[in-house]
Design goal:
With 411 residues, the chain is an alpha/beta fold. It contains 13 helices and 17 strands. The relative contact order is 0.09.
């Protein structure tokens, strides 16, 4: 059978005309690809690009004339699930109907399976060193597929990394600025860390309940709350004032014992001595916790408290200061009480970074910061996911949602 397959993707539309015998391509007659940018702006608008729809239909119209000349037995058109999920997906369907083309939606799971089979076709299972891993990078997402070469798919992970998605979210200029590229890289690292961090440590609050007693009143701060975060993940906790967000952080940090439920790190109570130094908590006003005579002394306190030598603690403190954008030579000997609000906040964060905890809990980390300080704080916290799990309590979840692996909402 001679078949023509049109593949409408988020970024590119492709055509292949080939002779197929028993499911195997025996001869190719025509191969075409055009950048149609169907998903331009869809990440933020939820709609297909109108110009992209027009480009797709124009390109397919031209191709159908070539296909007809090749005496094709069947034309099969497949499209990304974005065409189905978009608010105006019906416009593309209507356009294709007018051309006499029926569009079939291939969901992410099937598409990933096809990519895996295509990439591993011909690999000898007997001589392969192990399972094959295939990354199918699309416009909206990347599918990571693991399985037996030229055989069955065993596991599939979908990560929100795609060329069009990243462009819409971060790369707004042409060419993109260095800051846009850096922010994009941090987002990618965050997504990859969450996807590949399954073997890392896990911090869990399991059915936690906390009740405060105020005179004769009993106030439920938390009731049967469960949250889990792994190293490499960034979890955002949002909700109104008084909903228990800060209480949750205190429970996870081992500073508050719940009346019911448990808080554990890899199955061991967070208050156990073996978990000392593995969890760092940044309070709403972290600068109020500064106490050292100098910035360097303050930042080095954590590593020294957890057993580092004076020299090692100093080196860790200097590196932590650099990570938050403060030059140790300029700030190290300054008094922490003679800093601006933004500088003091960064010193407090450096104090947590210096002892390298597995988990970092941040309570309203951007509150009171100017635009520059907010941008740097977001970048710093996202950067922490390279080695740690991060939980952020915030009244401004929109600042962190692009990088979040999970958003928890409190009523």
């Amino acid at each position: 059978m001679r078949a023509a397959v049109i593949d409408i993707g988020t970024v590119t539309t492709r055509l292949l005309v080939a002779e197929v015998v028993d499911g195997v391509i025996t001869e190719e007659f025509l191969r075409r690809a055009e950048i149609t940018d169907l998903g331009d702006g869809m990440t933020t608008s939820g709609r297909l690009s109108e110009a992209g729809v027009e480009r797709v239909c124009t390109v397919i119209t031209e191709w159908l004339a070539q296909v007809e000349a090749l005496a094709v037995d069947e034309v099969y058109c497949v499209a990304t699930s974005a065409a189905r999920d978009a608010e105006n997906g019906a416009e593309l369907v209507r356009c294709l109907d007018e051309l006499g083309v029926e569009m079939h939606i291939i969901d992410g799971e099937r598409e990933a399976g096809y990519a895996f089979v295509g990439a591993t076709y011909g690999i000898d299972e007997a001589t392969a060193s192990g399972d094959a891993i295939v990354a199918d990078v699309g416009g909206g997402s990347t599918e990571i597929v693991t399985g037996v070469p030229d055989g069955a798919v065993q596991e599939r992970r979908s990560i929100d990394i795609g060329s069009r998605r990243l462009t819409d979210m971060f790369l707004h200029d042409d060419p993109p600025t260095a800051e846009q590229i850096d922010t994009c890289r941090e987002y990618i690292r965050s997504c990859l860390g969450a996807s590949c961090g399954a073997t890392g440590a896990t911090l869990v609050a399991d059915n936690v309940s906390v009740t405060y007693e105020l005179g004769d009143q009993h106030i439920d701060a938390l009731r049967d709350v469960s949250v889990s975060v792994r190293t490499g993940e960034l979890v955002v906790v949002q909700g109104p004032t008084g909903s228990g967000k800060s209480t949750l952080l205190k429970v996870l940090a081992g500073l508050l014992k719940p009346q019911a439920g448990t808080a554990t790190l890899d199955g061991v109570a967070v208050t156990d001595a073996s978990n000392r130094g593995k969890i760092g908590l940044m309070f709403q006003d972290p600068e109020s916790a500064l106490f050292g005579e100098t910035v360097l002394e303050d930042v080095a306190f954590g590593p020294r408290n957890f057993g580092a030598s004076p020299q090692a603690a100093c080196e860790a403190a200097e590196e932590a200061l650099r990570r938050v954008g403060l030059d140790p030579a300029a700030f190290g000997e300054r008094s922490p009480f003679h800093l601006s609000g933004g500088e003091a906040r960064r010193v407090a964060v450096a104090g947590i970074l210096a002892f390298a905890p597995q988990f970092i809990l941040a309570d309203e980390p951007t509150a009171g910061l100017d635009d520059a300080g907010r941008t740097l704080m977001i970048k710093t916290l996202v950067d922490m996911t390279r080695t740690s799990g991060v939980v952020i309590v915030t009244h401004s979840p929109e600042l962190f949602e692009p990088y979040a692996t999970q958003v928890v909402s409190f009523d």
